[in-house]
Amino acid sequence: MKTLLSLLLLIPSLSWGNFMNGNTLLEYCESNLEYEKNFCYGTIAGSLDTIVLYNSYIKSEKQDDEKYKFCNIDKIGDVKQAVDVVINFLKINPKNRNGNHVVLIDMAISDWLSCGYYNAETRKLIEDRLGYNF
């Protein structure tokens, strides 16, 4: 019974994460409420960890791919710096803030660390398929 109750309590938080957008993320990041600010930091830290881990893993796979740029992880100071980068990205791109928060975090960090396939061709694809506008 405890397991079932735990799962039921978890479902709303899982669905919330899928529908959160950049506006809500920005609001949480700039909030004075501790739990909202912690959510912001935790979400961005998790995304940053994923990008760094993926970068390490993919190096062996993409070594010969001239179009792929590995992340410049030497730029990373701490999570606060990453949060500042994401906040600035959201403020500079207000017309895209209705997009999924995870996609926006990934775009901000990848842009900051100069990595991935984020070039003119990819930006065009993101604009066309996902409705983002840069």
Provide a descriptive summary of the structure in words.
The chain is globular. With 134 residues, it is mainly α. The chain has one domain: Orthogonal Bundle (10k-s Protein, Hypothetical Protein A, Chain A). Helix 2 (22-29) crosses helix 5 (101-112), helix 3 packs across helix 5 (101-112) and helix 4 (79-92) packs across helix 5 (101-112). The protein has helices at 2-19, 22-29, 34-62, 79-92, 101-112, 120-130. It is 69% helix and 0% strand.
Task: Give me the CATH architecture, please.
Answer: Orthogonal Bundle
CATH class group: Mainly Alpha
Number of strands: 0
Structural class of the secondary structure composition?
Answer: mainly alpha
Instruction: Report mean pLDDT, rounded to a whole number.
Output: 77
Number of helices: 6
Distance between the termini: 49 Å
Uncertain runs:
1-17
The biggest beta sheet is recorded as:
none
Into which percent range does the helicity of residues fall? 55-70%
